[in-house]
Amino acid sequence: MAANPMTQFEVYRIGPEIKIGAFDISFTNASLFMVISSLAILIIFNFGAKKNTVLPNKIQLLAELSFTFVSKMISDTAGSKAKPYFSFIFSLFMFVLFCNMFGMIPYTFTVTSHIIVTFILAAFIFVGVTVIGFIKHGFGYLKLFVPSGVPIILLPLIVIIEIISYLSRPISLSVRLFANMMAGHTMMKVFGGFVISLGVVGGWLPLSFSVALTGLEILVAFLQAYVFAILTCIYLNDALNLHH
Amino acid sequence: MIKKIFFQFIFFNVFFFKEVFAAESGGMPQLNTEFWISQIFWLIITFGVLYVVLSKLLLPKISSNLESRKSQIQDNIEAAEKQRESSEAKIKEFDEILLKSKLEAKNIYKEAREKTLKEINTKKEKLENQINEEIKKAEIEISLLRKNAHKKINKIAIETTAELLKKLIGAEVNNSSISAIVEDLSKRNESKYYDN
Asked: Which one of B19, B42, B52 makes the best mutation probe of the A interface by having the most chain A beta carbons within 10 Å?
């Protein structure tokens, strides 16, 4: 059962099988933790937005701190033009952060450790950013692939590299988050298994590793959510303010 | 029996390593496509609901809360600044009033001093005038007395001489002859008698 470090990533059905046409959309443990994360965010921010006082209470302070944190992150990386996309990036950051953090509780499921989830998010961002870029700049958005100040001989090569790097954005964005979460949780599970198998005598070393890893993983959970959001901001910046 | 199993469990688990991890099978569950559609569907639902509720309901509220708090604090700071300024102006006014009243007090003191000095001076002058007048009067009186003195003395001399002569010689001498002598004498010795 718990011996295999990969079993924690298994998705299984909760409740009955639901099918729309040929598609299986049954409620799974992954769906459960998506719902739990979203609900937790909504509850916290609902209490955080409730009443207006000069001196905010703790939950209000939390909500307002994260609000200013994200808004500062966006204005630092993408400028003032990115303001309409604030709530999307805010929800994205919060969703990824809460999914990562809920995954840190033992016996839970980490939604973001699945490539399909992170890839859908990244692909949506990629498509959205590309559409925004073409709407804002028309075909001028293609200038993104032609950096200025490059010798003409090198230009074809550079353009190809730029196109490849642009197209690999959703893959790198999604794989970064997915691989970080999966690797961290697998490692914790392996060390946890060592604690059991080495017993009272030898188990202390992997146990202390496990404790340290938990701290590291909480850091990674926050950091990856931050990286995911800030890379989205940077892509958005490319689309809004054409620099090249 | 149980003890033995427990002992074995604790100390010899190392040897069951392979059995512990033996159940491994079939790679990463992430690549199992069975629930991909379900995950995508529920991701869109939950994230969509999260996005809509946050962007339409909660974030505007938080934003307006922050905004209103900021403006409230700004207002309070401005009000405090205003009060500070007004109190400073009042302190200035107070200082001015103090300075003015000091000056006024000085002026009043000066005026009063001058007035009293003047009064003293006028009174002094008056008194001096009076004294001078009285001195003059007295001097006039004295000089009058002095002027009349030698006539009186002459008269006294004449009369005394006449009386003396009468008593001594028993002869009556004419007053006019005596007076002639006396006059002559006095004229001759006037400087001797009356020079002070």
From this structure: B42
- What is the Cβ-side half-sphere exposure of residue A41, based on CA atoms within 13 angstroms? 32
Q: How far is A137 from chain B (nearest CA, A)?
A: 26
Helix (H, G, I), strand (E, B) or coil at A23: strand
E strands, chain A, are: 19-20, 23-24
CB < 8 Å to A196, chain B: 13, 20
Strand, coil or helix: A28: strand
Name the nearest CA neighbour of A174 among A240, A109, A124, A105: A124
Distance of CA A181 to the CA centre of its chain: 10
Report in angstroms the alpha-carbon separations of A37 from A11, A98, A149, A173, B48: 17, 6, 47, 21, 13
ipTM score: 0.91
Locate tokens 């980490």: which residue? A110
Note which residues in 32-91 of chain B have CB less than 8 A from chain A: 32, 34-44, 46-47, 49-51, 53-55, 57-59, 61-66, 68-69, 72-73
> What is the bridge-based pairing of β-strands A23-24 and A19-20?
antiparallel
- Per domain, the residue ranges of chain A are 7-240
At A28, give phi and psi (nearest 5°). Answer: -115, 180
The residues pairing with A13 across neighbouring beta strands, listed in sequence order, are A28
For testing contact with chain B, the best of A197, A201, A228 (most B CBs within 10 A)? A197
Structure tokens at B32: 């199992």
Q: What is the tens place of the pLDDT at every residue in B56-75?
A: 999 999 999 888 889 999 99
Mutation for B interface: A90, A102, A177, A191, most B CBs within 10 A: A90
What is the CB neighbour count within 10 angstroms for residue A221?
25
Alpha helix (H) residue ranges in chain B: 2-11, 17-20, 36-53, 59-168, 175-188, 190-194
Farthest-apart Cα atoms in chain A, separation: 68
**In this predicted model, what pLDDT tens digit does every residue of A61-81 receive, in sequence order?**
999 999 999 999 999 998 888
Judged by CB atoms closer than 8 Å, whether chains meet at B55 and A7 is answered as no
pTM: 0.72
User: Chain A contact for B147, CB < 8 A?
Assistant: no
